[in-house]
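Input (structure):
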């Protein structure tokens, strides 16, 4: 299987990025890119960077989130920024963090302590989770559970008990990266109602994109995984080509595909790579 067949250009602190440790990438509805670095949200309009510094006094504790930086775009131009056990809420309209993020939960009628959160593609908040790697399908009309399928057996749960990331692929399947004592990539087919293991490793897996029916990419410590979806074969690549003709070796914290099919990589200390 081919390695990642792209040549990347670089953007870093010399271009206006607040620092070169890029933790998470997101695209806003207006097309701007959001790059989360250590302590800052960087907004990029394709020409220049503008960053907003985070204040640790605006934090809300979420004890059940054990992952690294993750950012969601919510209603009312809010960005929810999660980082191990903590969440901040950034008001993009005023470019400032909410002093009391729990007021948003109160607006939705939630009085209990929130211990984790997720924002879906419709910008709605979800505050209840399961941690078993299962998919549970409900009837929209009756609200009754139709079936539930586990990605791995019960005796494997402790191996994947740390974090979960789920992405819907262009093929209609759901791809789940789990981590814990080891890491794995699983795919669920709604048609056959079955899970399949595509990749298992003892190295950390970070974030995932599925740009086509044929390929998935996962950023990870010291490189990137390319997974052939039809064959279920994976290849690890420790270096990437850059436009200056060099081979770059670095930790890859995150990978993201924008709406124009551009691929962005956030690195541990080399800024942003783009193709």
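Output (sequence):
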């Amino acid at each position: 299987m081919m390695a990642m067949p792209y040549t990347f250009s670089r953007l870093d602190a010399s271009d206006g990025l607040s620092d070169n440790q890029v933790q998470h990438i997101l695209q806003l509805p207006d097309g701007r890119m959001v790059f989360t670095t250590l302590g800052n949200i960087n907004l990029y309009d394709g020409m220049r960077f503008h960053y907003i510094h985070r204040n640790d006094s605006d934090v809300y504790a979420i004890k059940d989130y054990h992952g690294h930086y993750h950012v969601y775009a919510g209603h009312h131009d809010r960005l929810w920024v999660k980082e191990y056990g903590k969440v901040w809420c950034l008001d993009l309209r005023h470019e400032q963090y909410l002093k009391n993020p729990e007021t948003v939960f109160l607006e939705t009628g939630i009085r209990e302590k929130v211990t984790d959160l997720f924002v879906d593609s419709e910008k709605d908040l979800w505050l209840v989770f399961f941690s078993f790697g299962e998919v549970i399908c409900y009837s929209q009309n009756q609200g009754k559970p139709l079936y539930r399928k586990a990605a791995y057996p019960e005796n494997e749960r402790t191996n994947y008990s740390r974090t979960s990331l789920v992405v819907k692929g262009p093929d209609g399947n759901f791809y789940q990266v789990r981590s814990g004592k080891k890491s794995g990539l699983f795919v669920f087919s709604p048609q056959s109602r079955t899970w399949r293991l595509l990749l298992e490793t003892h190295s950390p897996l970070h974030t995932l994109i599925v740009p086509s029916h044929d390929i998935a990419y996962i950023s990870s410590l010291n490189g990137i995984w390319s997974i052939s979806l039809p064959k279920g074969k994976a290849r690890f690549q420790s270096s990437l080509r850059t436009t200056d003709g060099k081979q770059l070796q670095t930790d890859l914290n995150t990978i993201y595909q924008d709406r124009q099919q551009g691929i962005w990589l956030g690195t541990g200390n080399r800024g942003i790579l783009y193709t």
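Notes: The first strand starts at residue 7 and ends at 11. The mean pLDDT is 93.
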